[in-house]
Design brief:
The complex is a heterodimer of chains A (279) and B (350). Helix content of chain A is 31%, strand content 26%. Chain A has helices spanning 40-47, 70-76, 92-97, 107-116, 132-146, 169-186, 197-203, 226-233, 268-275, and strands spanning 2-11, 14-24, 29-33, 55-60, 63-64, 77-80, 157-161, 189-193, 206-211, 214-220, 235-240, 249-254. In chain A, the strands form 3 sheets. Chain A has a 6-stranded mixed β-sheet, sandwiched between helices. In chain A, helix 4 (107-116) packs across helix 5. Chain A is globular and about 55 Å long. With 350 residues, chain B is an all-alpha fold. Chain B has a two-stranded antiparallel sheet with strand order 1-2. In chain B, strand 1 and strand 2 (159-160) form a beta hairpin. Classes of the chains: A alpha/beta (279), B mainly alpha (350).
């Protein structure tokens, strides 16, 4: 398991994270949510071992993350970043195969993972010609390939930084559902930074709400209190439960009082604000 | 779906047959090239000589021809093979660590740094009896310093932008050029002649004695670089992704930087400034066989050697009995190619 206790991270004089404590257990999907600049990506970079905490401690299986050599860490956890640049015209299949790192990946594993991640049809396309969403799916497959053979008896961790940001709704569900079935298959754990709270509620087991580098709330992903969200995002929120659905939907609308209002007559938000609700 | 955005079928060709075919062509080119020049020796006679050597019979070649072949042309061919291979493989390696398909050792100042260091040795210690041994190491130090400088100048927050590498290369080249200018001003007439010849790039005047130390370094460095091909593919994804995939970016960059500087330094110390081979050759392989370094590096090595042999043969035959500096010849071909690449480059940061 991954255990963070009172983790702080600073870059120069900028405080990115402070007093963050959380644990990720095997078989658990943890969704990290929060506004831009809340420290979600910073937290993920600490959890992945990429950046060492400036204070506090992060352990993987009880061993401080800094004591894990890069190659050994790579067999235990994969990271899918928000932005990956590639100036060389590799094919999608070749990029996925890079998940093997310095080792070769058997072709049947590649094929299975690419089907599993719904990118088999992209295999011979050049990465440089793929759309943002297609690239994201390719990198997801690459992360899964990285964890295709974790050391026996050890939990693999899949860390995803906004994995659905460029995906259409269909592929958002496909990717997160694939992450869940990967979990079920391997007994691994997923930590995903998500902006869509409804997706977090549907696919996450636990949610961690970050704001200003601190954990504001953590608990069951389908039970994030509306009050916490309104406070953290400065918006008004609705939690909608649909009979027969397993998870609630979260809908947001601008909090009219906080929006700038320059001209009373033609400002849309002003018009909305007078009525106290959107449309 | 066909055509647009798909990889050409040649990319699926197996590596081994391609490599063997390239090696066969290289061997053929070497045999043809060794006979060409101011004194032409027919390839048939050379092969007959080799056959007789193996059988222990009498050689069909005169003593003069033998002296030309084994004292002058063979070391030159060996040098062409080594320099071509070293420049291509280190070009591909630098393009990998800089994540920049346009990084050429000469273009980004690595060769310039080596040349500056070597020029200082020629002028300041040209009469030293061990100059053939000192020169490659001095050139290595210069190449390493230039690589480090370009990397530090072009890297911002773990990201090396394509444009910044070329700009840093311009600065380092200007610096090296000024230094070389200073040494040519300080040098005497003989040294000046040696310097000029050498700045233009040439494989002439190679003796076995001069070749051995540099050859050892080139073979060692190229061998080690080839062993880095697979992690190099991972590394082009970026430093963060490379770390996530188990490669420590700093250690990897330093290791490859040192190996590439060793190869380029040694090559520059014996052949002078030869540009564009490290750019053109890896690019040709990439177009045919895809960008994987496991293909670009070994095939590039053989192709680089081939390009050098062809260019050198041209250099010493088109203006017989005079000789065109090979660096000049390759720049005439390479510079337009670079411009063409620049035009069609969609790399980020350009």
């Amino acid at each position: 398991m991954i255990e963070a206790s009172r983790v702080a991270l600073a870059s120069g004089s900028v405080r990115l994270l402070s007093g963050v404590s959380l644990s990720v257990d095997p078989g658990e999907f943890v969704a990290i949510v929060g506004p831009n600049g809340a420290g979600k990506s910073s937290l993920l970079s600490v959890l992945s071992g990429e950046r060492l905490p400036t204070s506090g401690c992060l352990r993987l299986d009880g061993r401080p993350i800094g004591d894990w050599p890069a190659w050994e860490l790579a067999r235990r956890r994969a990271v899918m970043f928000q932005h990956s640049v590639l100036a060389f015209p590799f094919t999608a299949a070749e990029v996925v195969a890079l998940g093997g790192g310095a080792g070769a990946v058997p072709p049947e594993v590649l094929l299975r993972v690419m089907r599993f991640a719904h990118v088999a049809d992209l295999a011979q396309r050049l990465y440089t010609t793929l759309s943002g969403g297609e690239r994201q799916r390719v990198h997801f497959a690459r992360a899964l390939v990285q964890l295709h053979a974790p050391p026996a008896g050890q939990t693999p961790f899949l860390l995803l930084d906004e994995p659905t940001s460029s995906l259409d709704p269909g592929h958002q569900h496909l990717l997160l559902a694939a992450a869940r079935s990967w979990m079920a298959e391997t007994g691994g754990a997923v930590v995903a930074v998500l902006h869509d709270l409804s997706l977090a509620a549907r696919y996450g087991d636990r949610a961690v709400v970050l704001t200003k580098g601190e954990v504001r709330w953590q608990g069951a992903a389908s039970a994030i209190p509306v009050g916490v969200l309104e406070d953290v995002y400065g918006l008004s929120f609705r939690r909608i439960e649909v009979p027969g659905e397993t998870a609630p939907y979260y809908a947001s609308a601008p909090n009219a009082m906080d929006l700038p209002c320059r001209n009373d007559n033609d400002n849309y938000y002003h018009w909305v604000g007078r009525r106290g609700r959107v449309l | 779906m066909s055509g647009a955005g798909r990889a050409p079928l040649s990319r699926r060709a197996a590596l081994r047959p391609v490599l063997l075919a390239a090696l066969a062509v290289l061997l053929l080119a070497a045999v043809l090239s060794i006979g060409a020049g101011a004194v032409a020796i027919a390839p048939g006679r050379i092969l007959a000589h080799l056959g007789d050597l193996a059988m222990g019979g009498d050689s069909p070649l005169s003593d003069r021809d033998r002296a030309i072949l084994f004292g002058i042309r063979l070391p030159r061919i060996v040098l062409a093979v080594l320099v071509g291979g070293a420049l291509s493989v280190s070009g591909a390696a630098l393009q990998g660590v800089f994540r920049n398909p346009l990084a050429d050792p000469a273009l980004i100042g690595v060769s310039g740094g080596a040349a500056l260091a070597a020029a200082s040795v020629i002028v300041l210690a040209g009469n030293h009896p061990r100059v053939a041994t000192i020169l490659p190491f001095a050139a290595f130090c210069g190449a390493l310093a230039a690589t480090a400088l370009v990397f530090l100048l072009a890297r911002r927050a773990g990201v090396v932008s394509v444009g910044a590498v070329l700009l840093a290369g311009i600065a380092v080249n200007a610096l090296a050029g000024a230094g070389i200018g200073l040494f040519s001003y300080l040098g005497d007439d003989l040294q000046l002649r040696q310097l000029t010849f050498w700045i233009l790039g040439s494989l002439a005047a190679t003796t076995w004695h001069e070749l051995v130390p540099a050859a050892a370094i080139m073979i060692l460095a190229v061998g080690c670089l080839l062993a880095h091909a697979r992690p190099m593919d991972v590394f082009v994804l970026g430093e963060r992704d490379a770390f996530a995939l188990g490669i420590s970016p700093t250690a990897f960059t330093v290791r490859v930087g040192i190996l590439a500087a060793l190869a380029v330094g040694a090559a520059v110390s014996v052949s002078g400034l030869i540009g564009f081979v490290g750019l053109v050759v890896p690019h040709m392989v990439r177009m045919m066989l895809g960008p994987s370094h496991r293909r670009v590096m070994p095939v590039g090595m053989v192709l680089g050697a081939l390009v050098m042999i062809v260019a050198d043969t041209l250099a010493r035959t088109i203006a017989v009995p005079a000789e065109v500096p090979i660096g000049l010849l390759l720049s005439l071909i390479g510079a337009p190619f670079f411009l063409w690449l620049l035009r069609r480059s969609h790399a980020p940061g350009m």
